[in-house]
């Protein structure tokens, strides 16, 4: 059976590779998507990539994922630390949820140390740079396949 994964990226991740390169590096979100698509093919997974700067759109994408996805790999960006609504949407999702952060949120400002999404996530990748996406995809494959 085909296993489908939603990659969901939140606010400002469309600027990956352009902003705060000292924190987030030079790899773009398009680069991440290309690398993950190749890996997903190798792992036998089907992936969909979405990015939005809007909280409501993220919630709608999570709701939609309930109808087709076996797992969600989410980088909620700044919404990690503020959005109970995204947590509630993820709590309504039955499959596996993995949280990704490019930077190590625990070495940054104190307000970044708490993630509401982590309360639902089955695993968290933080501080591995953009490699965290591929690590999360490998973990998702080991859980689902």
TrEMBL record:
The record marks 19 as: Transition state stabilizer. It comes from the Bacteria. It holds the Pfam family DHquinase_II. Keywords: Amino-acid biosynthesis, Aromatic amino acid biosynthesis, Lyase. Pathway: Metabolic intermediate biosynthesis; chorismate biosynthesis; chorismate from D-erythrose 4-phosphate and phosphoenolpyruvate: step 3/7. Its EC number is 4.2.1.10. Substrate binds at residues 75, 81, 88, 102-103, 112. It is an enzyme of class 4 (lyase). GO terms for molecular function: 3-dehydroquinate dehydratase activity. The active site is at residues 24, 101. PROSITE patterns: DEHYDROQUINASE_II. GO terms for biological process: amino acid biosynthetic process; aromatic amino acid family biosynthetic process; chorismate biosynthetic process; quinate catabolic process. InterPro entries: DHquinase_II (IPR001874), DHquinase_II_CS (IPR018509), DHquinase_II_sf (IPR036441). It catalyses: 3-dehydroquinate = 3-dehydroshikimate + H2O. CDD domains: DHQase_II. HAMAP family: AroQ (MF_00169). Belongs to the type-II 3-dehydroquinase family. Catalyzes a trans-dehydration via an enolate intermediate. Homododecamer. This is 3-dehydroquinate dehydratase. It comes from Cohaesibacter gelatinilyticus.
């Amino acid at each position: 059976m085909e296993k489908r994964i939603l990659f969901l990226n939140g606010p400002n991740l469309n600027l990956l590779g352009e902003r705060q390169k000292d924190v987030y590096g030079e790899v773009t979100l398009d680069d991440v998507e290309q690398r993950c698509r190749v890996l997903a093919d190798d792992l036998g997974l089907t992936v969909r990539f979405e990015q939005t700067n809007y909280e409501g759109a993220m919630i709608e994408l999570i709701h939609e994922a309930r109808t087709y996805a076996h797992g969600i790999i989410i980088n909620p960006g700044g919404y990690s630390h503020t959005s109970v609504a995204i947590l509630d949407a993820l709590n309504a999702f039955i499959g596996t949820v993995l949280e990704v952060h490019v930077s190590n949120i625990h070495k940054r400002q104190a307000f970044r140390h708490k993630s509401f999404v982590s309360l639902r996530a089955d695993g968290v990748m933080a501080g591995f740079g953009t490699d965290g996406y591929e690590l999360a995809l490998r973990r998702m494959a080991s859980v689902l396949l």
